[in-house]
Amino acid sequence: MTALHRRTLLSTAALLALGAHLPARAARVGQPAPDFSLPDTSGKTVRLADFRGQFVVLEWTNPGCPFVRKHYESGNMGATQKLAREQGLVWLAINSTETMSGDYLEPPKLADWVKQRQGTPTAVLMDPEGSTGRAYDAKVTPHLYIVDPQGTLVYAGGIDSIPSARVSDIEKATNYVKAALGDIAAKRQIAQAVTKPYGCVIKYKT
């Protein structure tokens, strides 16, 4: 075997190993949202398909992230969740942090953390293997998506327009999710269906 042949085989193996951690086809706006089945913080299995016929907001979260804390500790995330649920939407908060990360919280502690900050999601789901996060190509926390009643992804991006961890920036920012909720309530297409998410890189299992 020549040196060139060995290098080619090693490069191919490296690419295959990398590919094993990437989604075969990440979700995109306008395409079907990948179904998933995850346990909530009480151990109950929740499937996206259970909510077919309703709009569903997916929120990637991690309490160890200052950008997540900005929106929860200010009450902004809870208020946005409450607005969505008052409109009849389902809100699923998903934590894809791997168990070996210092940011990982056991399910009961995560549930308490959200509740203490007036969070009102329909459910908080655990994705420590990262399979659902990777299927959606979720990159940061918070990273948000909206799925329509037919199961199509209609929004992907950030919660708002100012990428900072400062609470004082919330009132100056455009809340993209609230704007999308307004479009949904008015039965019109979401005006800004793709925006740039910001936050902490998700601590996926490697």
TrEMBL record:
Residues 1-26 form the signal peptide. One of its GO terms (molecular function) is oxidoreductase activity. Keywords: Signal. Residues 27-182 form the Thioredoxin domain. InterPro entries: AhpC/TSA, PRX-like1, TAT_signal, Thioredoxin-like_sf, Thioredoxin_domain. This is Redoxin domain-containing protein. It comes from Ottowia beijingensis. The lineage of its organism: Bacteria, Pseudomonadati, Pseudomonadota, Betaproteobacteria, Burkholderiales.
